UniProtKB/TrEMBL annotation:
This is HpaB/PvcC/4-BUDH C-terminal domain-containing protein. InterPro entries: AcylCo_DH-like_C, HpaB/PvcC/4-BUDH_C. GO terms for molecular function: oxidoreductase activity, acting on the CH-CH group of donors. Residues 3-62 form the HpaB/PvcC/4-BUDH C-terminal domain. Pfam families: HpaB. It comes from marine sediment metagenome.
Length: 62
């Protein structure tokens, strides 16, 4: 049984750790696309990008 718990712990750790770089790329891409299209100042777009940043900060705090 300890082997199963160790595997589960390791799997959760690696799953959380690879999401950080992917999320950073997603935030950067979303911001770049919004700037390119000239909609980076639109309130609902800023809100969505802010939500992505909050999600990224939550991942980093884990």
């Amino acid at each position: 049984m300890p082997l199963v718990y160790n595997f589960a712990y390791l799997h959760r750790h690696t799953a959380a750790s690879y999401r950080i770089p992917i999320s950073e790329a997603l935030v950067g891409a979303a911001q770049a696309i919004a700037e390119y299209n000239g909609i980076d100042k639109v309130p609902h777009v800023r809100e969505k990008i802010t939500d992505l940043v909050i999600y990224l900060d939550t991942l980093k705090s884990m």
